[in-house]
Write a structure and sequence with these properties.
The chain has 292 residues and is α/β, with parallel strands linked by helices. A hairpin with a 7-residue loop joins strand 8 and strand 9. The structure holds S-adenosylmethionine.
């Protein structure tokens, strides 16, 4: 059997609410494969019924994923192609599939993404928060202590922060965000692509207030997005100490560029801001000025 006779694993994105979001390519491939590996076969059966398709299915969820690898690999080796789908959106994104895809890739199998809906991308695309850099964190921990700890670790990050959340925990999570991130600007995307799709803006406390006033705002599925931390300029109380660190680095013969990179890494703030500071320190000590 040549390589071209081997089957392909198609990683197929499915709708996160609106069935019209299934791509024609995804619909065609779901009808062409020999087998669909589905997070919940009953859930995917509804999608197949909608498409008028009858395709054999095998469940693949977090509890049986490692045990399924061998069986699916054998099918690919026999020349059968397989579609991997989750209940909604893109498989592997806070959904099963990573164990399978990694194992099959290690075995040199052909794996083809069939892109489509993904809640975090849909949410970011309409939120009006910076998207040049963002940090997707999936679901925050379920317990408040661990959740606050994770939020504290993220509080200084300048990228837009993106979280998934369920209706059971949305209020508790917003309360923890209020406690840790304070007045930070949030955008809450709810029920994307569905009839009650809503985007709410404001601090976590303000969003909780909206839910208090209108409990429907706490129903459904959520993507929480938080503006990144403001860039900290090196002008706070630690600045004298910071100057001393920079001066010591420069005195040791470290270049302005390197010294500012080290300062930014140790003390926060941008390399650019530290560069300007290091340069002025160097000038104040009567030394030459380094250029970019
Ligand atoms: N694989 C999916 C994707 O590509 O987005 C995510 C699956 S994860 C188990 C489910 C979570 O995604 C939900 O709890 C919610 O946070 C988010 N989500 C999924 N569909 C959504 C929708 N229609 N509106 C808002 N959030 C959604």
């Amino acid at each position: 059997m040549s390589d071209t006779d081997l089957g392909t694993l198609y990683v197929v994105a499915t709708p996160i609410g609106n069935l019209e979001d299934l791509s024609p390519r995804a619909a065609r491939l779901l009808g062409e494969v020999a087998l669909i590996a589905a997070e919940d076969t009953r859930h995917t059966a509804r999608l197949l019924r909608h498409l008028g398709l009858k395709v054999p299915m095998l469940s693949l969820h977090e509890h049986n994923e490692p045990a399924r690898v061998e069986r699916l690999d054998e099918r690919l080796a026999r020349g059968d192609s397989i579609a991997l789908v989750s209940d909604a959106g893109t498989p592997l994104i806070s959904d099963p599939g990573f164990v399978l895809v990694r194992a099959l890739r290690e075995r040199g199998r052909r794996i083809v993404p069939v892109p489509g809906p993904c809640a975090l991308v849909a949410a970011l695309s309409a939120a009006g928060l910076p998207t040049d850099r963002f940090l997707f964190q999936g679901f925050l921990p379920a317990r408040t202590g661990a959740r606050r700890q994770r939020l504290e670790q993220l509080a200084g990050r300048q990228e837009t922060l993106v979280f998934y959340e369920s209706p059971h925990r949305i209020r508790d999570t917003l309360a923890d965000i209020a406690a840790v991130l304070g007045e930070r600007h949030l955008v809450l995307a709810r029920e994307l692509t569905k009839s009650f799709e809503t985007f709410l803006d404001g601090s976590a406390a303000a969003l909780l207030g909206r839910m208090e006033a209108d409990p429907d705002q706490a129903r459904g599925e959520f993507v929480i997005m938080a503006a990144g931390a403001e860039e900290r300029e090196p002008t706070d109380a630690a600045s004298l100490e910071a100057d001393a660190v920079l001066a010591a680095l420069l005195a040791e013969g470290v270049g302005v560029k390197q010294a500012s990179a080290v300062a930014a890494r140790l003390l926060g703030g941008t390399k650019k801001a530290w560069y300007a500071r290091a340069q002025s320190l160097k000038e104040a000590h009567g030394e030459g000025v380094e250029r970019h």
